[in-house]
Write a structure and sequence with these properties.
This protein has 215 residues and is α/β, with parallel strands linked by helices. Helix content is 49%, strand content 13%. The structure holds flavin mononucleotide.
Length: 215
Amino acid sequence: MKTKKIIALIIAIIIIAGGISIWLISSNKSNNFNTNNNLNLNASINENVANTEDIGTSSRKKIAIIYFSATGNTKKVAGYIKELTAGDLIEIVPKDKYTDSDLNYNNSNSRSTREQNDSSARPEISNTIDTSSYDVIYLGYPIWWGDAPRIILTFLDDSNLSGKTVIPFCTSGGSGIDASVNYFKNNYKNINWLDGKRLGTSQSEVKAWVNGLNY
Ligand SMILES: Cc1cc2nc3c(=O)[nH]c(=O)nc-3n(C[C@H](O)[C@H](O)[C@H](O)COP(=O)(O)O)c2cc1C
């Protein structure tokens, strides 16, 4: 009787041990399967990131030429830059158009003189300018009293140009661009400002400048 009990116990131990072995082997296999799947998934994610990076570095930068022009000189230069870069040409249109008397710099009470004397003046823009898709923006304006017209600051205040490259250009009767660009650099620090240039309205001058830029 005792011998029978011992034999039954041994058989039971063999059955339990066998079951445990089979479970261990099968669970190990499924772990391997999951691990392999994870590896495959990671590989495909990495591939996608690499592809995205490839697209980012190889694609051309998207360019806009955004300008304000009261009497047409800056508009002309902006048109040349458009031809040279194939960028999108966008005009900053004032809600209240500047009349000849508004532009009279001999009158200390003309609209343009009053605006330039008021650092908080932000003349309204009538059109909506969506800059979100552009990497590089040429920003053009005439010099008024040594500076950019206040409507340019309206544009900068209203736009999110963080991290974008902005290249100022201006036309003038002789004054340079540096005062306006220094103001931009000090007051809109999240923009990547290039130094910019005062341009005449000769196409060859504009071409030489644009072709020499590196962005
Ligand atoms: C109100 C006003 C102020 C100006 N101030 C200056 C100035 O300080 N220095 C300068 O060289 N030219 C000055 N100019 C001349 C313009 O900068 C120049 O004519 C410019 O090319 C005009 O550009 P636009 O035709 O695109 O408006 C001024 C013109 C106006 C109307």
